[in-house]
Design goal:
This protein has 120 residues and is mostly helical. 75% of the residues lie in helices and 0% in strands. The protein is built from 3 helices and no strands.
Length: 120
């Protein structure tokens, strides 16, 4: 949220600077232009991260279901170890996403991540 708030504040400063500029400098206009570009980039990254994380959530659910189904079927020791390794990888991914969702970058991560439970 802070990463979106800072360019908005700079945009407001640029608007005020452009409105009160009596010397004919373009500092306010340049500030408005730069902050508008920063806002657009921030919004595009939010969208990209949201889409990417939602895709990973679908993959997590599919992996969790597959691991839980195969765990109770007669699989070999090698397949069970491979499933455990995959479960560890997905649980690491989930822990990282849930940790960062609680911080200031939470806007970039969908809240659906908090509803997911680790693979047991």
């Amino acid at each position: 949220m802070i990463l979106l708030l800072i360019p908005v504040i700079v945009l407001l400063i640029g608007i005020i600077a452009a409105a009160t500029d009596r010397r004919g400098t373009d500092r306010g206009t340049a500030t408005i232009f730069i902050s508008a570009i920063a806002i657009i980039i921030a919004l595009l990254t939010v969208l990209a991260f949201q889409v990417d994380t939602r895709t990973e959530i679908v993959q997590f659910r599919a992996a969790k279901e597959t691991i839980e189904i195969n765990r109770f079927n007669g699989v070999s020791e090698f397949e069970r170890v491979a499933a455990q390794m995959k479960a560890i990888e997905w649980n690491e991914w989930l822990a990282v996403k849930q940790y960062w969702n609680g911080w200031w970058v939470g806007l970039w991560i969908p809240d659906a991540v908090d509803k997911l439970k680790p693979i047991r």
